[in-house]
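Fold in C-alpha cells:
===
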Amino acid sequence: MGTFDALLQGFAVAFTPVNLLWSLLGVTLGTAIGVLPGIGPALTIALLLPVTYHLDPTAAFIIFGGIYYGAMYGSSTTSILLNVPGETGSIVTAIDGHMMAKKGRAAAALATAAIGSFVAGTLATVGLSFVSPIMVKIALLFGPAEYFSLMLLAFVTVSALLGSSILRGMTSLFIGLAIGLIGIDTQTGQARFTFGLLPLLDGVDVVVVAVGIFALGEAFHVAFREARRPEEISSVTGSLWMSREDWSRSWKPWLRGTVLGFPLGALPAGGTEIPTFLSYLIEKRLSKRPQEFGQGAIEAVAGPEAANNAAVAGVLVPLLSFGLPTSATAAILLAAFQQYGIQPGPLLFTSNSALVWALIASLYLGNIMLLVLNLPLVGLWAKLLLIPRPMLYGGIMVLSMLGVYSLKNSVFDLWLLVGIGGVGFLMRQFEYPVAPLVVGLILGPMAEEQFRRAYAIAQGDMSVFVTHPISLVLLILTAACVIGPAILKRRKVATP
C-alpha cells in the first residue's frame, strides 16, 4: 500500500465522530496546558497515562497528538502576553512578542504566531507522512549491533545537549539506566536490585517514574520556590486580523521556519530550542529592518513560532520509525506505546498501520481545530493565567496519586511515586535535566537486549560493533558528540 492510500485510510479512521471528539479534547487540553507556564505536554501526557490505560490505543494517541501540537500553540500566548514562555520552544517568541504586546500589537503577534503554527504544523505533518516510510526502509537495514550503536548515540546526544553540562546529563542518564535494571533479568531469571522487595520483581513501572519525575517533581519544585506570577498581563486589544504589511513580513519567515524546524527536530536532541534560536538569527540577518529586532519585529515572532511547530512534527519521525525519543515528550509517548504493548520502529507501520496513519491524519485535523480555537478565543485562554499556583499544582499532585494508584491499586506504588517525585525535585533544584533519566529508563533495557543479541550472534566477538559499517559510523558520531564539545572548549580557551 502506498503512502497516499495509507493516509486516506488514516483519515477514514480519524474522521469518525468519536475520534473527532478525542482530537478536539486533545487540542483543547493541549492549548490550555501550553498557556500555563511550567506545565508542558510531557507532564500532561504522563498524568494521562494511567487515565487512558483502558482506552482504545488509537483514541489515546489521537488525544496525545492533540496535546503535543496544542501545547506549542498555547505556549505562544503566555510568551506574548506575560513574557513567560509556557514551553522552552517559545523562549525566543517572548523577546519580540512581548514587546509587540507592550506597544498595543498583542493581537497581531498572537495572529502571526497562530497562523505560522498552522502553516508550519501542516507542512511538517506532510513531511512526517512521506519521510517516515522512507526512514522505515532505512531502519530495516539495521541489525542488533546497529540498533545498539544507535541507542548509544541517542544516550549521548540527549545527555550532552540537554542541561547545563555533559556530566549532569550523563548523571541523569545513569540514574535512569539504573532504575531500568530493577526487576527480573529476562534471560537469566535472576532478580536485580530488588533489595528483597517483592513488588520490585516486576520492575519499576515507566508510568510511575514519568508521573513522579514530571508531575510531582515539578509540583514540589514550584512549591519550594513559591513561583510568583508576573504582575502585569498585557491585554489583547484590536482586531485579530493582521494588516497587509504584517502578512508580507510574515509569510516568508513562516516557510523558512518550517524548512529549518522539521529536519532539526528529527535529529537526536534537536528539540525545539535549537531551531527557534537559529530562525531568530536568520530572520534578523535577512530582515530589511534589523534594528527592530528586540523592539517588536513581527518576523521575530513568525519565524521562531513556525520553527517551533515544525520541530514538533520532526520529533515524531525517529520515534515512529526507529522507536527513539529525542525529547522529553517523545520519551513519554514511547512509554505510552509500551503501556499498550506496542513497540515503535520499522515494524510499527505494518503491525499497527491503522493506529499510525490515524494518528498522522488526526494531526492534520488537529491543526485546523487549533487555528479555529486560537484565533477567536485568545482572550479566554489568557484568563487561565489567573489560576492561583497552589490550587493548580495541588490539583496536579492529587491527580498524579489517584492515577498511579488506579494502575494496580498498590500503596507501594504511591510511596515509590513520592520517592521518585523527590528525586525529580532535587534534580530541578540542582539543574539536572530530567529527560535523559526517562530516556535511559525506557531505552536502557532495549539497548541491553540488542547488545546481548548482537554478542550472541557474533559468538562473543566484540568486533561486531565496528565491522558493520552502519554501526561503526554511529559509534564515530557518538564519540564525536562526547569529544567534540571538549575540544572546542579548549580551543576557545587557548585562543587569545
Notes: The first strand starts at residue 183 and ends at 184. Residues 88 and 273 are 6 Å apart (CA to CA). The chain has a mean pLDDT of 82. Residues 3-494 form one domain.
